[in-house]
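Narrative of activities, Objective 1.

The group set out to show that a structural description can be obtained from nothing but a protein's sequence at a throughput compatible with the screening campaign. Below is one input-output pair from the validation batch, recorded exactly as produced.
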Amino acid sequence: MENKHLFLFAVYTTILFFIARMVDMKFIKNEMLPLKEVIGDVAIVFGCALGASYGYIYSSAFFGSILDFVTEQKEREIVAPEIFTQQPDF
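Output recorded for this entry:
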């Protein structure tokens, strides 16, 4: 996945959070918070979404192998073991 896709994921997540926050303030809590607090929350969500998406993409190889072990999915080809039939060299 390209970096611009990770950035767009963070932007879309932030926009959805902002919309959900505005709906929550307007219709559920019936009180509007100062814009400074809302912008701060949106900035935190953007940073977390961007960091999480980068972390997920760049560590997927490590966690993928762990999850393959847990779910018993075989991605690697199983090869026959080597058998030594000669006399030992020692």
